[in-house]
């Protein structure tokens, strides 16, 4: 797949409570955005809470999310999850509609490559998210507002790391202006 | 407008402890479409159910929104309530207030509250867009497929059969029994494994409801739960049911292979049965296809066959196999270019096996095979064979064997064709040809020598005089001369004529200086013949350069050693001389690009010409049909100097007239190709005379067996026996055979170098020895499709390959075994009958060392993370057995942590420890083999801290468990998820341990994870219970969350068809082509819905409207 | 996805017209209406000479002209709400994204059979047959693209 | 026999030969042979005067904090990238492992910030561009990338010479999953020498056992150090090898310098010699034993071996 390196948000800020250092260890490399160097833009928290919509696949990501909940892991309140049977169900329209109607960031989370319950759903999703990112880039919107992550159902630390990472990335960006 | 009721659950404080539910409820009432909001302490309990029932009745609700825990947890409970209240399917929406909100934001209650409002609003918006869906019903087939014939599969099959369900038990191996069949005793009761497994096997064999399919694999699965369509591929057993299990065949089979059942501790024959009470009890042949030598040979001679027999000195049988497709094994052993040796696998290890030399020695023992008995006459149609060369005589013998009266016409005074009159006797002695021709004629074939076709008789006259069929195998006897000026000068002769007159004994002389024109084998023969006829200087001039010279390299180097001079890259332009030829002028040349038939014409190079003096010039530049050979053969077409033949029937343009060998188009110019063509012609003639295609003209091709590099690298290299040759100076003037051939001892040694690539070597020894006539080597793989209601996967585990730990020396050191191999040694049905013997010297080991956690509890990339659960008990069991039978043997077990969970196991450990087994806490990293094959072990006892170094006679590695190759393959075929080390992933480790991710497919035993036999049987019975309950109802509702395409909106672009991973969508063409979803096969992933350009495709419960409503609140 | 009014009008009257085209016609004047195209690729599979091709580049501008009420229209409205400037040039589309790909037409390969028009469900392609007489007068290569000769 | 070392893309240039203190002082021939082989195999390289010590000796002897190693490794990386030769080819396995370990630690932002604070004093910075271009290879890996050319260049057939290789622990065991081949049975040296026709002993008992040097063990705990070395010498003697080849000067020093001493102390016979892999490969390709392979620097008498492989007559060109 000639998909560009799929964006993954930056590691969690050091000030995280000690008990969760183990979770932060699931290292997620920095996104090098085109045009807008993410590490530089420090948005002021004043202009309100960000909103992120996450499409989680029923088999892996949503069960990892439930496991994180049962483990009472604290997660950023900006993220609202929607269950889909498989990430293959998510179309570009869903992602862009969410952004258009108030979300500052969207991401899709599905099974690990090769472990999709429907074999190829996550591959389709990877390509569609890449397409949406290029679409956003072509109209001047920061592509890292849309992302995709893959994880196993048992890998709660990865779900938590990607959720926090996405929250950190989006909170570093200004609120998404809408005409 | 929908009338939606919202129900919020306090979840006993889990949710209400963080969220202010009354405030949330108040906010909820203002959402459009909401007519009622109530809060309850426990919605999922009976009280919650009554509350919902009351509100639905009072307020006439048609949608319910549940604000509670995750939908994955209590979703089914509320959906069942909606179904019971006849609201229908897809009428409940969920707000994940617990895992999705309260639990994960309990430190930020006000942010949690705001998020909860959005989450609730989203659920209400979704409910407003939800449309009720109609489930369709499917018929549940009361049958099940159990994959894997081990103790797990057997137990599940037994349980299902007793519940009246038809079972198809599929097993990859040759017999049921799986891993347990390999064990001697089982812990902790030390009762014999076969005692508990045997009855299960017998039961599976006799129960009418269990259909056993061994040597079978599942290749495809489609359709919904309850109506799974399964495709099975059956591999041939090559032994029919008549087999009584007497084992006579194993005594005659010449091929020994590593016993896969005994895990390589011993070897067994290509035809074998793994253990005494195997089910099915019939033997099976391990046939891995044609060995590379057999598949390369034009006649597909079973080369591996006669070599395997030769390696055992069974010369008569070897001759039978070598002469079956080819009546001239002795001839071919001498002159064949043996392409088979180039392809020999051994060539990749050290040097190829000297196949031709062995064949020659075997053929020279023809006498051992006894006289030829004349085949019975079965047909009256007489067949005429024109030409007594290799092609004609082979056809004649085969036709005689088929029962036809055959008459062979030969123009020359003696039979043998090019074998007798073309190849000089220092390469092929006349008596060798004569004896093999004699054996052909001994089949009752009439030879009429000295009658030339086209003169003494013609094809027409033969047919007129009552011959049913004529085979033109007259070869290309005419030497072709180049049309150069000076061609008629005396001293210019054809190579074939020189060789023929020498072979016929006519007086022939050559001049002092001889120039042979041509680069092929005929040219080399002519040159060496000229030397032997007394020529002083013989030069071979040819258009090819040294690399592309067509002659066999072996022959050419022998010629050069004898003094023949080579003048490559020269094209003759003129023959000079007046009374007789005196010299030849050549123009240096290179070769142009190959033409249509692959021949590369010479292209002159502008360098000055070369002149070679010559008293005799011999042309060896090609052969042609005899001038008038085809006079009176109407309808027989010739193209490119060869007779045109229909490849499928070997018939020429004229009905009843066939052609083969050099004379027939497409025939190669070497003996074995002519012989193969003759055999094909015989079958073609038989089909023609009998009027139907009884025999395959071209034999059934079998795919080629390849030995992988990894396995090859484990074989010891052995030097090749080089053939002794007459020294050049001695043979330069003598006609004695140059290559002296192997003696018996050399032939035996060389034959033992064969690697038996194809497994069974097609030597048919078993077929002839079987008293019940149960061997059928023509069996082919076949496929079958079944429809079953459910699947149970019990494909078991495999032992960790200890070779992945090189420092432990497994596979390199003789006395390092794994526990499974030790189990085979200790098993009464094992190779040593239960006697503990050191592999290196067969002695009873005095000091045994066992090493635990090999490949288990290993965080490096060389092992598996998990603990394999049974190895400590397995090692303790074997230690106890050894101490029982061999009190003098000391056993030491090095463990990391001794793990003896479960009933009676800790007690068993104490019992065994008292029997004098030494347990040390250490994890040994390396073993070293000493000269006497004993093993030096250095370890640090992590309890006492002491360092130890001792020698041991035998080391047993407790290699852990990982998913078997069969498990990985079935997971790929039917789409199951695999976790670490390849174990199948259960739906839920606690709640649904024997369910797989896919509905209707259940898993049991070590395929799901490491466990012992009791747990495996328990899981197998559980899986059987799950299948029984699933199929009990007879009917089931298909899930509603499947795809559906609206025919009016669909534009028929077919994108959905191309992306569906299940192949569940197809295009219905008519005036308006549109997509139609087979809702039985669709699993509801939604890839098609997301890709659909017109929006016609949707998924029940996850339509665009519902998702967008939820995403954009 | 209901046809737009313009789409129904074009699809309706043209379907019958092209079937009567005589064999002697030299190619067609093809006019594409990108805004109606949904990228389904039926014209590509219908075209016998390969004149209609789908490559793996997509020009977002094509989205912005899509009519409301269609799938692409909804995508366009959503994109327009958050866009900060007009879409920059086309970009490469990942392999598994099937329908967002530009359609390319090469007139020199076109045999004028009109199959693409019959195949197109949304009327995004029109073909005006060039009758034999006119062909001699104005060599098609010179005629400006899109104008009736 | 098919070689087991995996194929790699050929490295033709951009190589900075990372000089090693032990090689330069104890066996300069190993460095000379490597340079000679680079020219023969068409590998463009430089020796960069800016490059300094890898601090391995000090760090592994616990005389120096890791922070120092980190800063010096970062500087060496900057220097290599600056010189346009980002592929650091290490003659010694200790340099290889310590620089690679530093590279890994420099990925962690805090440590990189700390190092850059120090490097700022000398006007350098270790940033993303350097981290993404710098590469760490052992010299044998660079030679292996051109191994197809070896067969054609052999001038002295080493037929009949039995060779065993002592795999360097710092190459195999510090990054076990990144070695060329199997970290518990490294065949890189044997496969490099195979075109010269040597008889390779492949995997032998205790192949992965330590050479006994252990940096300071040789000085602080000599009896233990020599005992371990003797064990290895016994194994190799039992195999009847003629040459044991090494890929790290530490091992070479431990074996070559102490071979005869151990032989004398334990009055046992270990009839074989020790060479660097590059030295033997160069000899097979016809290199001069003295000026290129620096045999004079060895304690053992290498003449019998040189005679046997015809290295003393003029090499046939």
Provide tags for this entry:
heterotetramer, A: 179 residues, alpha/beta, Rossmann fold, 4-stranded parallel β-sheet, 5 helices, 4 strands, 32% helix, 13% strand, globular, disordered N terminus, D: 317 residues, Glutathione S-transferase Yfyf (Class Pi), Chain A, domain 2, 16 helices
3D architecture notes:
The complex is a heterotetramer of chains A (179), B (1113), C (149) and D (317). Chain A has helices at residues 21-24, 61-70, 92-100, 121-138, 156-172; strands at residues 52-57, 79-84, 105-110, 146-150. Chain A is α/β, with parallel strands linked by helices and 179 residues long. Chain A has a four-stranded parallel β-sheet with strand order 2-1-3-4, with helices on both faces. Residues 1-46 of chain A have low confidence and may be disordered. Chain C is α+β, with helices and mostly antiparallel strands and 149 residues long. Chain C has helices at residues 5-19, 42-46, 61-64, 71-82, 115-119, 132-137; strands at residues 28-32, 52-54, 57-58, 91-92, 103-105, 125-129. The longest helix of chain C is centred in the first third of the chain and has 15 residues, at 5-19. The radius of gyration of chain C is 17 Å and the shape is elongated. The termini of chain C are far apart. Chain D has 317 residues and is of the alpha/beta class. Chain D has a four-stranded parallel β-sheet with strand order 2-1-3-4. Chain D has a four-stranded parallel β-sheet with strand order 6-5-7-8. Classes of the chains: A alpha/beta (179), B alpha/beta (1113), C alpha+beta (149), D alpha/beta (317). Chains in contact: A-B, A-C, B-C, B-D. Chains A and B meet through helix 2, strand 2, helix 3 and helix 4 of A and helix 3, helix 4, helix 5, helix 34 and helix 35 of B.
């Amino acid at each position: 797949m000639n998909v560009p390196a799929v964006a993954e948000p930056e590691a969690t800020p050091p000030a995280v409570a000690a008990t969760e250092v183990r979770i932060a260890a699931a290292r997620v490399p920095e996104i090098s955005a085109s045009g807008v160097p993410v590490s530089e833009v420090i948005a002021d928290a004043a202009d309100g809470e960000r909103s992120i919509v996450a499409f989680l696949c029923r088999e892996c990501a949503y069960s990892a999310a439930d496991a994180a909940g049962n483990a009472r892991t604290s997660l950023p309140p900006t993220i609202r999850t929607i269950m889909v049977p498989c990430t293959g169900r998510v179309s570009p329209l869903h992602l862009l509609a969410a952004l258009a109607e108030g979300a500052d960031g969207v991401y899709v989370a599905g099974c690990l490559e090769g472990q999709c319950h429907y074999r190829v759903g996550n591959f389709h999703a990877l390509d569609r998210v890449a397409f949406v990112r290029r679409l956003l880039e072509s109209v001047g919107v920061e592509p890292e507002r849309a992302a995709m992550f893959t994880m196993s159902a048992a890998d709660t630390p990865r779900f938590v790391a990607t959720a926090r990472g996405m929250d950190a990335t989006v909170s570093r960006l200004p609120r998404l202006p809408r005409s | 407008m929908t009338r939606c009721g919202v129900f919020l659950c306090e979840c006993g404080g889990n949710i209400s402890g963080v969220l202010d539910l009354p405030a949330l409820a108040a906010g909820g009432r203002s959402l459009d479409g909401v007519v009622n909001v109530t809060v309850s302490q426990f919605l999922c309990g009976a009280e919650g159910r009554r509350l919902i029932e009351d509100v639905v009745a009072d307020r006439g609700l048609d949608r319910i929104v549940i604000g509670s825990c995750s939908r994955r947890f209590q979703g089914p409970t509320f959906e069942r309530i909606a179904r019971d209240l006849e609201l229908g399917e897809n009428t409940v929406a969920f707000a994940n207030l617990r895992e999705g909100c309260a639990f994960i934001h309990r430190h930020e209650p006000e942010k949690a509250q705001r998020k909860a409002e959005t989450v609730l609003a989203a659920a209400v918006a979704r409910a407003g867009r939800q449309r009720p869906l109609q489930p369709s019903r499917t018929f549940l087939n009361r049958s099940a497929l159990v994959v894997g014939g081990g103790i797990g599969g057997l137990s599940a099959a037994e349980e299902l059969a007793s519940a009246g369900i038809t079972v198809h038990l599929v097993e990859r191996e040759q017999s049921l029994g799986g891993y347990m069949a390999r064990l001697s005793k089982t812990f902790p009761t030390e009762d014999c494994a076969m005692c508990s497994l045997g009855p299960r096997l017998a039961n599976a064999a006799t129960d009418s409801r269990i259909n056993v399919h061994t040597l079978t694999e599942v290749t495809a699965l489609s359709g919904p739960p309850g109506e799974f369509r399964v495709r099975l591929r059956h591999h041939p057993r090559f032994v029919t049911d008549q087999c009584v299990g007497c084992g006579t065949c194993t005594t005659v089979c010449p091929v020994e292979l590593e016993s896969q059942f005994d895990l390589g501790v011993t070897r067994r024959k290509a035809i074998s049965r793994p253990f005494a009470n195997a089910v099915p009890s019939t033997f099976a042949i391990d046939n891995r296809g044609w060995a590379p030598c057999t598949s390369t040979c034009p006649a597909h001679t079973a080369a591996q066959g006669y070599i395997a027999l030769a390696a055992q000195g069974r010369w008569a049988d070897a001759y039978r196999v070598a002469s079956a497709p080819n009546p001239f094994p002795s001839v071919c052993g001498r002159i064949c270019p043996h392409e088979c040796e180039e392809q020999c696998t051994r060539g990749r290890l050290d040097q190829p096996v000297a196949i031709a030399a062995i064949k020659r020695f075997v053929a020279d023992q023809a006498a051992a095979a006894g006289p030829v008995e004349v085949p019975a006459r079965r047909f009256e149609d007489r067949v005429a064979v024109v030409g007594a060369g290799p092609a004609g005589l082979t056809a004649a013998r085969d036709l005689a064997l088929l029962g036809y009266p055959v008459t062979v016409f030969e123009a020359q005074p003696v039979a043998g064709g090019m074998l007798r009159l073309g190849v000089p006797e220092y390469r092929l002695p006349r008596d060798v040809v004569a004896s093999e021709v004699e054996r052909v004629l001994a089949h009752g074939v009439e030879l009429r020598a000295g009658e030339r076709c086209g003169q003494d008789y013609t094809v027409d006259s033969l047919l007129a005089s009552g011959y049913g069929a004529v085979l033109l195998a007259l070869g290309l006897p005419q030497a072709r001369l180049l049309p150069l000026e000076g061609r008629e000068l005396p001293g210019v002769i054809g190579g074939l004529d020189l060789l023929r007159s020498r072979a016929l004994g006519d007086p022939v002389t050559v001049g002092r200086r001889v120039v042979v024109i041509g680069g092929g084998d005929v040219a080399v023969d002519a040159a060496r013949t000229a030397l032997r006829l007394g020529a002083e200087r013989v030069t071979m001039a040819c258009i090819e350069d040294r690399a592309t010279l067509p002659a066999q390299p072996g022959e050419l180097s022998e010629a050069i050693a004898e003094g023949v001079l080579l003048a490559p890259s020269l094209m003759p332009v003129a023959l000079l001389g007046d009374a007789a030829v005196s010299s030849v002028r050549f123009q240096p040349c290179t070769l142009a690009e190959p033409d249509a038939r692959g021949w590369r014409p010479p292209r002159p190079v502008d360098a000055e010409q070369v002149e070679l003096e010559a008293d005799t010039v011999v042309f060896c530049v090609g052969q042609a049909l005899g001038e008038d050979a085809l006079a009176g053969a109407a309808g027989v077409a010739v193209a490119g100097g060869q007779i045109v033949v229909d490849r499928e029937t070997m018939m020429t343009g004229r009905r009843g007239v066939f052609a083969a060998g050099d004379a027939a188009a497409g025939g190669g110019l070497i003996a074995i190709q002519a012989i193969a063509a003759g055999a094909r012609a015989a079958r073609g003639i038989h089909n023609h005379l009998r009027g139907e295609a009884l025999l395959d003209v071209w034999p059934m091709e079998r795919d080629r067996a390849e030995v992988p590099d990894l396995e090859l690298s484990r074989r010891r290299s052995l030097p090749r026996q080089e053939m002794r040759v007459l020294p050049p100076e001695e043979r330069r003037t003598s006609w004695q055979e140059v290559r002296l051939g192997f003696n018996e001892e050399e032939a035996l040694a060389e034959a033992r170098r064969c690697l038996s690539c194809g497994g069974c070597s097609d030597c048919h020894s078993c077929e002839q020895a079987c008293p019940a006539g149960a061997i059928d080597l023509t069996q082919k793989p076949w496929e079958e499709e079944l429809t079953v209601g459910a699947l149970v996967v019990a494909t078991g585990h495999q032992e960790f390959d200890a070779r992945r730990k090189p420092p432990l020396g497994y596979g390199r050191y003789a006395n390092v075994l794994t526990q499974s191999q030790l189990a085979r040694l200790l098993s009464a049905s094992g190779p040593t009958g239960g006697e503990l013997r050191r592999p290196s010297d067969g002695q009873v080991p005095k000091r045994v060392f066992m090493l635990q956690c090999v490949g288990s509890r290993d965080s490096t990339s060389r092992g598996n993370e998990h603990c394999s659960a049974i190895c400590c008990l397995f090692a303790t069991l074997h230690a106890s057995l050894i101490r029982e039978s061999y009190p003098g043997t000391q056993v030491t077990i090095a463990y990391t942590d001794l793990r003896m969970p479960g009933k009676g196991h800790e007690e068993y450990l104490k019992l065994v420890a008292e029997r004098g087994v030494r347990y040390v806490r250490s994890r040994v990293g390396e073993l070293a083999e000493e000269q006497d094959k004993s093993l030096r072990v250095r370890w640090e006892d992590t309890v006492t801290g002491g360092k130890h170094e001792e020698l041991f006679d035998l080391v047993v590695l407790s290699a852990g468990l990982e998913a078997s190759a069969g498990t990985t393959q079935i997971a790929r075929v039917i789409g199951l998820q695999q976790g670490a080390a390849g174990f199948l992933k259960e739906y839920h480790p606690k709640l649904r341990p024997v369910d797989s991710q896919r509905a209707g497919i259940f898993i049991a035993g070590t395929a799901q994870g490491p466990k012992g036999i009791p747990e495996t049987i328990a899981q197998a019975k559980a899986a059987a219970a799950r299948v029984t309950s699933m199929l009990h109802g007879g009917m089931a509702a298909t899930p509603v969350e499947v795809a559906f395409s609206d025919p009016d909106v669909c534009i028929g672009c077919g994108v959905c068809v191309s992306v569906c991973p299940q192949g569940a969508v197809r295009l219905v063409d008519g005036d308006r082509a549109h997509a139609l979803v087979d809702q039985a096969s669709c699993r509801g992933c939604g890839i098609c819905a997301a890709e659909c350009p017109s929006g016609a495709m949707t998924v029940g419960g996850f339509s665009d409207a519902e998702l967008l409503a939820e995403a954009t609140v | 996805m209901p046809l737009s009014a313009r789409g129904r009008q074009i699809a309706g009257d043209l379907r019958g017209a092209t079937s009567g085209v005589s064999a002697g016609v030299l190619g067609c004047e093809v006019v594409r209406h990108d805004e109606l195209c949904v990228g389904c690729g039926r014209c590509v599979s219908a075209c016998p000479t390969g004149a209609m091709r789908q490559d793996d580049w997509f020009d977002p501008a094509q989205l912005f002209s899509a009519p409301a009420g269609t799938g692409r229209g909804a995508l366009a409205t959503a994109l327009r709400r958050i866009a900060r400037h007009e879409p920059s040039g086309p970009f490469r589309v990942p392999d598994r994204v099937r329908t967002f790909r530009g359609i390319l037409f090469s007139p020199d390969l076109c045999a004028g059979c009109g199959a693409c028009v019959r195949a197109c469900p949304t009327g995004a392609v029109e073909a005006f047959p060039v009758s034999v007489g006119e062909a001699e007068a104005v060599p098609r290569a010179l005629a400006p693209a899109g104008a009736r000769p | 026999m098919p070689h087991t070392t995996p194929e790699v893309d050929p490295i033709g240039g951009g190589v900075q030969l990372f000089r090693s203190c032990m090689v330069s002082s104890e066996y300069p021939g190993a460095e000379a042979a490597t340079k000679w082989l680079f020219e023969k195999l068409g590998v463009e390289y430089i020796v960069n005067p800016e490059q300094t010590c890898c601090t391995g000796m000090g760090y592994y002897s616990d005389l120096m904090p890791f922070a120092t190693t980190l800063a010096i490794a970062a500087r060496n990386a900057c220097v290599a990238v600056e010189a346009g030769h980002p592929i650091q080819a290490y003659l010694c396995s200790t340099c290889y492992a310590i620089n690679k370990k530093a590279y890994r630690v420099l990925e962690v932002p805090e440590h990189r910030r700390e190092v850059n604070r120090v490097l700022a004093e000398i006007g350098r910075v270790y940033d993303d561009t350097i981290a993404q271009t710098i590469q760490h290879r052992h010299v044998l890996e660079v030679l292996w990338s051109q191994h197809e050319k070896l067969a054609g260049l052999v001038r002295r057939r080493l037929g009949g010479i039995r060779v065993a290789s002592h795999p360097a622990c710092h190459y195999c065991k510090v990054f076990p999953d990144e070695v060329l081949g199997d970290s518990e049975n490294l065949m890189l040296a044997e496969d490099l020498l195979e075109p010269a026709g040597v008889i390779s002993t492949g995997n032998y008992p205790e192949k992965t056992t330590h050479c006994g040097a252990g940096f300071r063990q040789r000085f602080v705990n000599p009896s233990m150090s020599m005992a371990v070395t003797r064990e290895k010498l016994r194994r190799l003697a039992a195999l009847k090898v003629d040459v044991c080849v090494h890929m790290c000067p530490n091992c070479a020093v431990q074996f070559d310098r102490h071979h005869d001493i151990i032989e004398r102390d334990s009055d046992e016979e270990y009839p074989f010699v020790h060479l660097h892999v590059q030295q033997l490969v160069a000899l097979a390709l016809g290199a001069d034993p003295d000026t290129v392979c620096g045999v004079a620097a060895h304690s053992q008498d290498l003449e019998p071996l040189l005679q046997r492989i015809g290295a003393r007559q003029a090499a046939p060109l």
